[in-house]
Structures are given as structure tokens and as C-alpha cells.
Amino acid sequence: MDCINQRGIAYGIGVGPGDPELMTLKAVRLIRENDIIVVPGKDPKDSVAYKIAEAVIPEISGKTLVSVSMPMVNDKEALTHSHREAAKQIESYLDDGKNVVYLTLGDVSIYCTFSYLQKILEEDGYAVELVSGIPSFCAAAARLNTPLVEGKEELHIVPGFYRRNETVSYDGTTVLMKSASHMSDVKEYLREKNTTVFAVENCGMENEKVYQTLDEIPDDAGYFSLIIAKNKY
Amino acid sequence: MDCINQRGIAYGIGVGPGDPELMTLKAVRLIRENDIIVVPGKDPKDSVAYKIAEAVIPEISGKTLVSVSMPMVNDKEALTHSHREAAKQIESYLDDGKNVVYLTLGDVSIYCTFSYLQKILEEDGYAVELVSGIPSFCAAAARLNTPLVEGKEELHIVPGFYRRNETVSYDGTTVLMKSASHMSDVKEYLREKNTTVFAVENCGMENEKVYQTLDEIPDDAGYFSLIIAKNKY
Q: Are A154 and A200 found together in one domain?
């Protein structure tokens, strides 16, 4: 009779958007309890998600830190290749019966690189569990001391501003994420709409900046910039 | 010279959608550090938000628990009146130099009753701070082990299904919250769309139920039901 190893579980864990105190109790417990910590990027210790976790769990630096390459490129073949490689790294630990904790910024279900790995891991028969983190737009609203939506208003999360003429104008509140590379276009677009605009750059991080009007937002705002546009009624 | 009291701060704190382990470190700290706990409803100890906090911070039961009436009615005058009364209760503690912690389910910036009180408190010159909680739709996605959105997909949060013909059909993923009272209409509407549907009832609570298809969702699903509808491409 073959001896069947109990495979480990792959946890995708959101550590929230920046402030280490916005980590959940569950995220902290699972990072403490497990020894294999996977972080996207070249050096795990350079990643923002790792630094957030380390601020609460300093002993993380003594765990097995595994970096996986998750390049942001448009070449589908290259992407698929790096996702397969990253999944293979994770699976080697799972096969040894070890759990793996993948750290990700914000929430794990919203524009998260782990989603690509999850698909491969599940296809390969491994168990995956997701642990929610505070999404950046919630933290930005709290930082701005403003509700995102009330009553019957709708909330629309738009992952980027790609093509000006194709960007739909929604009722309620629209959050524009990762629009920094087109900031002057975004500002021109929003200026024409009847909206109240706020923005937060690097929410909860040391270099956080808060903008209370559209005009305050610099054209060269950084990658972690998030715009909240509320329709005026 | 008059003696000027230092006024307290009103904290609006999201305790997440149900699982006490999804509370943030910041929420736990602020509940521990402060003595006046405000909860909407008749008996504070009956409220779901209170029970979530109590599971992590049992000593909360020895604090000053204040119930405020936040009725869900359509009568605007009655609503304004109860919000003013609730704000008055909170302000009496703030005037005494005490901080007040208002507990709310999910996140504090998304369809939160505290938003009404915040407006009054700020108009009256009091300091308000918001502390994010995990929104129900993030926890539901994690429970279902499915990403909400990936890549260029948009995420739309719709607070209720009111009038069938006016409900807009969006690209990407749509989350329907608080649609239980119209569930059979909602199901009929979604059946006509080309969507993959999941739902979670009472996410993270003892009586949690998970539905992996539209047909599994019962017509009499409870108030804390949340539907995730993903467009098929």
C-alpha cells in the first residue's frame, strides 16, 4: 500500500492596503502559524505586502520566504509561463505537506495576482483558501472621512482608465484604480463630468498623500493612486 | 477664563461581515481602548455587530453599551428625527471628553447607517474617524473561493433590486446586496442574462449558506443574502 502524503493548503491572504493595523486577525494568525511565505517580486523583503506583515509579525523574517515572478506584461505566453512556474514552486511545498501563505496587497478577490495561481493550483488538484483583506478603496474612503456610497447609490470599481471614449460614466460613485499612468487624461475626463473628486496616493503608507479636489491631484501621481468620483445630484 | 473641555472623538468602526476573525487589529484596539460602545438597535447585545466584537473582546460586555434607534423606514422626517436623537446621545459623551465607538457590520463607508450620524456630528463640530472593515462582498467571494474581478473587469455593487426594468446590466461582475425581499424577481431577471451566479446567506455566521448556482438560491433567502453575478464572455 502506498503511503499518501497529506498535501498542504495554499492560502491567498490579503494584508490590506498599507496600514499594518488594517490586517485582520485571521491574516495575522495564519502568517504566524505557517512557515512558507510566498511574495511576488524579486526580493520578498522589498515587497509592500511583506513589509505590512513584518510590521505586525517581525518573526516573519525568520520564515522561509519564497519569491515568485509575477511580471505585469501584456505578452500572454510569457504571463502563462511565469504563472505556471510560480504555481510549480508553490506546489513543491504543498506536496511536502506544508501550507503556503501567499501575501497580497489589499483584498485577495479584487484584481489580485493570486487569482491566476489559484486557477492552476485548483486544476492541479490542490486546496486553496482565500482570506479577505481591506480593499484600498475602503481604506481611502476612511482616510478621506467620506462614505463611498449611501442609500440607493451604486458603487463602481474600474480597474484602469484605458481608452477615454470607452470609459463609461456611471451613476453613483466610481472608483478609478491604477489610473496613474494616464492621470492628465483622467483629470480632463473627470473635469467634464459633474462629479466631486477625491484621491489618495499610497493610502496608509509613510508617503501617503490626500487630495480633496481634482485640481490638487498631480499629473505624476504614483502607481498606488486611487480616485473616488461621486456624481452630484 | 472658561475651562475648555477636550471633546472626545466619534469612531465609526466596521467589524466585518460575520466571522470575528475578520476584524482588523485597529478595530480590536479601539474597542479595547474605549468605554462607550454605541450599537444601533433596541438591545445592544442583540445586534450582530456587537456579537462579532464580543467574540474577540469579551470584556466589551462590561463597557457602557448605548443603543441608538436607527429605524429602516422610508419616512424622511422620522428618519431625520431618529438620526438627530442618536447624534444627540453620542454628542453627550463626546462633550464629556469621552470617545465613542460606533460598531457597524461590514465596512463603514459602504451603505452604513453611521454615515447619517457622521454628517450631523461633523456639522455640529465634532471629530469623526472611520475605521474600515471587510465588506460582505469580499468575504463572500473568499467563502466561495472565487475572485470577484480580474484584469480589466469592472466591479459593480448594487444595493438592492428595486424596479426590474430599471436595473442596469453591467459588464464584469455585479454584486446584488440586500435583494432578499425580491428574490424570485431577482432570480428571474438573472436567469435571462448570460451570467454565472453565486450567493452567500449570512456569510461567516453560524447559519451561513452557500449557493453555487442560481437555482439553488431559495426564494425566501434571508436579509443578509448577497448575490455575485459574473458576465460570461
A: yes
- Residue A106 and residue A18 in one domain: yes
**pTM value?**
0.94
Burial class from Cβ neighbours inside 10 Å (0-12, 13-18, 19+) for residue B76 reads exposed
pLDDT digits (tens, 9 = 90+) for A48-107: 999 999 999 999 999 999 999 888 778 889 999 999 999 999 999 999 999 999 999 999
B125 and B201 within one domain: no
* Maximum alpha-carbon separation in chain A: 72
For the domain that residue A157 is a member of, what is the CATH number? 3.30.950.10
**What ipTM does the predicted assembly reach?**
0.94
Q: What are phi and psi of A27, to 5 degrees?
A: -60, -45
Which residues of chain A have a CB within 8 Å of the CB of B115? 147, 150
Q: Which three cell numbers stand for residue A146?
A: 467620506
Best mutation target, A21, A109, A113, A169, to test chain B (most B CBs within 10 A): A109
Query: Which one of A123, A132, A203 would you mutate to disrupt binding with B, by most B Cβ within 10 Å of its Cβ?
Result: A132
Q: Which three cell numbers stand for residue B135?
A: 465588506
Inter-chain touch A149–B29, beta carbons under 8 Å: no
Q: Is residue A1 part of a domain?
A: no
Residue A1 pLDDT? 45
Q: Is there a contact between B142 and A132 if contact means CB atoms under 8 Å apart? A: yes
Domain contains B4: no
Cβ atoms of A106 and B112 within 8 Å: the answer is no
Q: Which domain holds residue B204?
A: 136-231
Residue B184: strand, helix, or coil: helix
- Which band of pLDDT confidence, cut at 50, 70 and 90, is reported for residue B1? very low
Report strand pairing: A64-68 vs A36-40.
Answer: parallel
What CATH number does residue A105 fall under? 3.40.1010.10
Is residue A106 situated within a structural domain? yes
CA distance readout (Å), B144 to A3, B195, B198: 31, 16, 8
Q: How many domains does chain B have?
A: 2
Same domain, A225 and A200: yes
A106: Cα separation from own chain's centroid: 4
Name the maximum alpha-carbon separation found in chain B: 72
Among candidate residues B89, B113, B131, the one where a domain is terminated: B131
